[in-house]
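If your schedule permits, I should be very grateful for your opinion on a structural question. What I wish to show you is a protein chain and, alongside it, a tokenised description of its three-dimensional fold. Would you kindly read the sequence against the tokens and tell me how you understand this chain to fold? Here, with my thanks, is the record as I have it:

===
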Amino acid sequence: MFDCLKKIWYNCFLIFFFPVVPGIPTVPFSCLSCGNEGVRTSCLPEGKMGSNSSRISDLPKNEYLKKLSGTDSVSENDPFWNQLLSFSFPAPTSSTELKLLEEATVSVCRSLVVNNPRTGNLGALIKVFLSRTKELKLSAECQNHIFIWQTHNALFVICCLLKVFICETSEEELQLHFTYEEKAPGSYSSDSEDLLEELLCCLMQLITDIPLLDITYEISVEAVSTMVVFLSCQLFHKEVLRQSISHKYLMRGRCLPYTSKLVKTLLYNFIRQEKPPPPGAHVLSQQSDGGGLLYGLASGVATGLWTVFTLGGVGSKAAAAPELSSPLANQSLLLLLVLANLTDAVDAPNPYRQAIMSFKNTQDSSPFPSSIPHAFQINFNSLYTALCEQQTSDQATLLLYTLLHQNSNVRTYMLARTDMENLVLPILEILYHVEERNSHHVYMALIILLILTEDDGFNRSIHEVILKNITWYSERVLTEISLGSLLILVVIRTIQYNMTRTRDKYLHTNCLAALANMSAQFRSLHQYAAQRIISYTCRHLRRYVYVLDKLYFPHYHCSTLQHCFSTLSDNGEELLSLTCSHILRSYAFSLFSLLSKKHNKVLEQATQSLRGSLSSNDVPLPDYAQDLNVIEEVIRMMLEIINSCLTNSLHHNPNLVYALLYKRDLFEQFRTHPSFQDVMQNIDLVITFFSSRLLQAGAELSVERVLEIIKQGAVALPKDRLKFPELKFKYVEEEQPEEFFIPYVWSLVYNSAVGLYWNPRAIQLFTMDSD
């Protein structure tokens, strides 16, 4: 009964404070929970922004927008605001249409930039919005659709204006535009109030406090989008901002107490993946003939302009924009990443990063240390599930990286999960389709694997998880394979792709580091995984000899050998029976005798002399010395990985020994090489030991019999004869990681944010691929 009376009082409150304006019709409305009827102004006869604008192209001529941006001041109590904020036009549904909206309104916005210091109309609009948000929570409870719709429209207009102001003005000018004095709108003084700080605090309150319902969904998204727009000043600077308006307002003052609550809400928005309300739930639906809006209370909330962000693509690549099931989750995640990657202020660390680094599981009852600010708790199981399900997007992978790298509570929880395949498989699929992903996404996925492989428990457990029918792996039908063996296959494939296509040293080094971390814990390797480890090593051993051939014997190299390498497939199987193996062998022994500890210098000199002798040729010669260094680095790491496995888990991996024995001729050629001699000792010992046992068993042995002999020999081989230090690599961020992450995050915002468009020609932070 009390709730019913409260809602009746609230309806009377709206009628008193938002009276019927002459000439504007009223419509009946009722409390949806109790049926008590009242009267509410519809604010605009046809539901348009003025009487004419029903298309984007009409906006520059719109009289209400002209008045807003003109030379006359408009009081915050003027009925004009009710008229301005009751608008609708066909919603943009692509990045092209969003661009048209930007181009159609930019002249109006620029006029406001010029006139606002004198009129103060921007401040009046913000005050109208601020006054409405004070009653927003109660409006949601009372299902007051029109009030919420107009409040959303006010915020939408503010967001559009703010975007242009940030792009067109300096930070000092921007702050001046948002400074407002009560007594004389448009005049600025030292004691005037700062509406920008009020607006930001209001947005934080709106995001964190307003319940997420069908009628509040669009205004929640708009609030998140407006905060993203406020932070977008970074887009228009080439250098990373270390002191900006964002630092001033978001890292101190009235906004600071909202830090943990905001981060928690944004995370939960990502976790819940709430979908927008269905079109049939809107109170204001456009007529089929493209005319005005019909107000009907039974049907839900206003469409207004909110479909701008639920339907619109962004950036310059309209076709690349994926369809989003939850605009709020996407927008919240982007805002969270932007906040987390803000640089520290001069006098204080980034509080949003602190919040992300320290939050705990809701099941963790231990108290937070007093030294940890902005702490909160969240459901880790729900977070884990969401992260597993959303790894197809760059931003979800970046969030996973951020949490694993910076929050020890999250990392410990994830490594203790018994269903790690749900997290690892999406990461492996990203790497498997490396040619379809951007390089940053691949890096993040790879570093996540590297962080996970730092844990021995993870390295053991992934070999205990058996997978069946991995449909996305197309090289070979894998009816049954362990997660660990699949991980090895995908990482080796990634290294191979990098070495043949992108040749990025950073990428293959991290791939090899992940394999090295796992190597001591290799268990029951699938025969294909074992074969790929050995065949990939052999591929580079042969490639190494080929490059030596090109360096030292440029005019007399083996044409057959060159042809073999030029036609070598990804699997490297063509060289199993190399027709010129006798040349390989003779080259290997003759060339290795020339090498000393300073062989790199020798190779460099050889390259220079080769170039000098062939300077008349217009075709530039490859830098074989540099190639040789890269190949040598890969070979050594692969040999160390094999060595580590043989030393620590020989008896668990008969398939690896089998593959090694199958290629023993090539490995034997490298036992005297100065760069590999130390790591070849154990491998040579294993080859010699098992070769002798196979020789004793006689000829014509079946695969099964060979494996049986290997298993028996692994038990008989004294462990003290194999000595090699365990390989351990740890991921450490490079100095000034913000130089990488801030442009990356903002490129995600540019390409993935819903309903936000920036002129690519104005962006300076990163290079645009296309216009």
Notes: The first helix runs from residue 2 to 17. Residues 1-48, 282-322, 569-607, 609-616 have pLDDT under 50 and may be disordered. Strands lie at 26-30, 37-41, 179-180, 193-194, 284-286, 293-295, 360-361, 377-378, 466-468, 480-482. The first strand starts at residue 26 and ends at 30.
